[in-house]
Structure formats: C-alpha cells, structure tokens
Amino acid sequence: MITRQTSLSKNIVQFCRFLRTKGFVLSAEEEATALNVLQLIDYSSKDVFRLALKAVSCRSKNQLNEFDALFNEYWKEIGRAIDSKVKTETKPVLKPGMQDASFKALKSWMNGNRNDEVEETASYSMNESLLQKDFSSVPDDELNELMRSIKNLSKRLAAHINRRNEKSDRINLPDLRRTLRKNMRHGGELLEIAFRKPKKNRTKLVVICDVSKSMDLYAAFLLQFMYAFQQVYKKIETFAFSTSLQHVTSLLKQNNFKEAMQLISAENRHWSGGTRIGESLHSFVNNYAKTILDKRTIVIILSDGWDTGNISLLQQSMEAIHARSKKIIWLNPLAGYNFYSPAVAGMQAAMPYIDIFAPAHNADSLRSLGKWL
Question: What is the per-residue pLDDT across 218-272, written as a single tens digit (0 to 9) for each?
C-alpha cells in the first residue's frame, strides 16, 4: 500500500503524496513547509508531530476530521515495515563497517528516540525542489509530480485573485486593520468596528500560449497551468498558436487535462511547427480583440519570441492589443537564464508594448504571476 522509505524526511514527502491519493490538495510547497517545521518542533513527541503535519496539510473541516485516521494508517504501516526490515527500494552498497544511517535514524525515531542522525536526514533545501527545476530538465519520473504541483499552484493563484475585499458599512466581516487604525483616536479602545465584504474582481484575463517547435519543452507545463487556472477563474479566454491562432477556451473545459491536450493537438494541425507570432496576433486582433479586450483585461502572452513570420505585423498587432487592454504581461521561458537578452527580432518588436516581461521556466516563476494580476 505504501512505498517504504528509510528516512524521516523521505517519509514526510511520501506521507504528503499518500494524502494526495485521499483527496488532499498538497504541492511541493506544502512538502517543503512540513520538512522545515521539523526544525521548530519537538518531533520526538508523536502528538506534536501529528498536529504540526495536520496544520500544514488540512484546508477544510472534512480534512481535519479525516486526518488523524490517515496519519495513524500511514505511520502504523511504516512501523510494520521497520519491524520487518523489508525494503522496497534497492539498498546501496556500503563499505565494511558502515550502517544505513537513514534507516537506523528512522527506526530510532519510530521508537521515540530523537537524535542528530534524524535531524541530518530531515534537512531540506528549496533549491532542490520541483518548484525550482527548469521545465526542460525535469526527469521523466518526476513529470507527474510536477504537473500536480503546477495544477495546485494555479488553482491557489486563481482562488487568491478571486478573494478580494473592500470597505463596507454593512456588518459582514470584521476588518481588524481598519478597526485598529480607526480607534487610535480613542486611545486604543475598540469603540468603532470597521467591516469589509468580498469585492467583485472585474479583471478579465486573456492568455495566448505559443505551442511551436521551439516551445516544445515548456508548452505542456504552461498549458497545464492555463487549464487548472481556468477551472477556478471563469473570466478568462485562452488561445494557442504556432503558425496560426486557435481559440481553446472551450477545449480546456474538459474534465481531464490529457483529453483537453488531445483535442487541442487534433484541432491544431501545425502543433510544434514554426512560429508566426505576428500573423497569429494579427488574427487575434481582427477576430477577437473588439469583443474580448477592454481596459479591465490583462493579456498574458507565453512565448520565447522566436518569430519566423512578419515582424512588422507583430509590432502592429502588439500596438493594437496594448491600446485596447489594461496591460500586457509577456512570460518568456528563456528569460530564466542568467545571460538571456531579448535580442531576437520578435522580442525587439514586442518590447515597447510589454508592461511586464518575466520568466516562465519553472513552477516558482509562475507563482510570481500573482503579484501582477
């Protein structure tokens, strides 16, 4: 039922993955938080350890009710594996006289003893997490995990954008910050209570994703991001292009991401072909801009800027989109490299009309999108 791991840190990651199979929404970020928590608590106490993981993992009352049973189920199974000393992973070859420190440390922890070996194996670096890995260098055995992380990240970002509040004179939700500021003139006595209410977010999004050959290593991840985002944020129109433009909003409403990808690929005969950004954006301006764009619309373009088409048409189209929209955000996977410069003709033509130019080479860079929306 549970893949056996031989260190406390690996088991915490495995436990998070176990919870995901039970419907919990946990990404690599929550895994990192759970591991970092070990430095702040006395994890030799099982109750403290359980409560810490519970605080990190649960997001609803139902999950709080289910957590204790799942926690006991997982760690009881690990306890049996420790006692039987049966490993499902290949044990490394050790020099004479050496012991498997991770296994020994975990066994000690399961028996209630805390030691330095456990602390060492529980160390964690965010630089090694999936969030930091360039999409082009993710190994095959981590693809599914990264896709889940991107999906969770995108849904949280979309939900965060939806959760805005504004001042209100009606009794709704107490606004602690405004209440304290309002009562400073009374010497800190809480005589007046300020309230807030959910604010309607009128921002609309248009996302245009490059799926040409030069974007092959990134397109699937970016489309997963768009797919998950659209599941939560409804005021969004999505497009894909290589040599021609395709409106994919309805296709990304499929219940299954793989089905959506198959539909997009089937309808786009030039998938992974050349790149004609100018012609594709010109098609967007002529066929969609008048009905979709207004001063509440943010346009996000996901592309490396390599254009084999008409550069002057690209410039004209960018100028038209910029004039009609609130802002243009251009996310370029190549911008994640230290020595990158937007020197190609396509990027040079587009740059005067771009309000925000940023990388989109890993999941962490996509998380930064929230502050611009």
Answer: 888 888 888 888 877 888 899 998 888 989 888 887 777 777 777 777 766 555 5
Is residue 328 within 8 Å of 353, Cβ to Cβ? Answer: yes
Say what the pLDDT of residue 34 is.
Answer: 83
CB atoms within 10 A of CB 91: 9
Which residue, among 216, 224, 210, 226, has the nearest Cα to 257 in the 3D structure?
A: 224
Strand-pair partners of 214: none
List, edge to edge, every strand of the sheet that includes 164-168. Answer: 164-168, 195-199, 173-174
Domains of the chain: residue spans and CATH? 8-124 (no CATH), 166-199 (no CATH), 204-372 (3.40.50.410)
Between β-strands 327-332 and 356-359, what pairing exists: parallel, antiparallel or unpaired?
parallel
Identify the H or E element spanning 173.
strand 173-174
Q: What is the DSSP string of 203-259?
A: -EEEEEEE-SGGGHHHHHHHHHHHHHHHHH--SEEEEEESSSEEE-TTGGGSSSHHH
Q: What is the C-alpha to C-alpha distance for residues 320 and 318, in angstroms, rounded to an integer?
A: 5
